[in-house]
């Protein structure tokens, strides 16, 4: 089941990437949610287990989740940001420049 969900997510991200309907990064996501929440259909929150102790990141996630819930935006937690980076930034090499803790699909 999880594999099917992963495949479906991969397909959604691939389409969104080709249609340029992705917003990457906590700050960029917050800006978009502030001005145009109605066009956001999915919010991905990605963090590794080691980042669970990052208070600032957890506060961002809490606020993003609350905002998404208020605006009926689906939220998905991703526990493997490295895999997300592989899908979204194939040409960026091993150190992706973008913040991938939050990804919005519009």
TrEMBL record:
GO terms for biological process: DNA damage response; regulation of cell cycle. The keyword Ion transport does not apply. It comes from the Eukaryota. One of its GO terms (cellular component) is nucleus. Keywords: Cell cycle, DNA damage, Growth arrest, Nucleus, Phosphoprotein. InterPro entries: GADD45, Ribosomal_eL30-like_sf, Ribosomal_eL8/eL30/eS12/Gad45. It holds the Pfam family Ribosomal_L7Ae. This is Growth arrest and DNA damage-inducible protein GADD45 alpha. It is found in: Nucleus. Belongs to the GADD45 family. Residues 7-88 form the Ribosomal protein eL8/eL30/eS12/Gadd45 domain.
């Amino acid at each position: 089941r999880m594999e099917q969900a992963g495949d479906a997510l991969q397909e959604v991200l691939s389409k969104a990437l080709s249609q340029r309907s992705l917003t990457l990064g906590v700050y960029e996501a917050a800006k978009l949610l502030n001005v145009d929440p109605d066009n956001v259909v999915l919010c991905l929150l990605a963090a590794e287990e080691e980042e669970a102790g990052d208070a600032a990141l957890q506060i961002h996630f809490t606020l993003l989740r609350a905002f998404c819930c208020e605006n009926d935006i689906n939220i998905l937690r991703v526990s493997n940001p490295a895999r997300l980076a592989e899908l979204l930034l194939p040409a960026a090499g091993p150190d992706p420049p973008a913040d991938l803790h939050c990804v919005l699909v519009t």
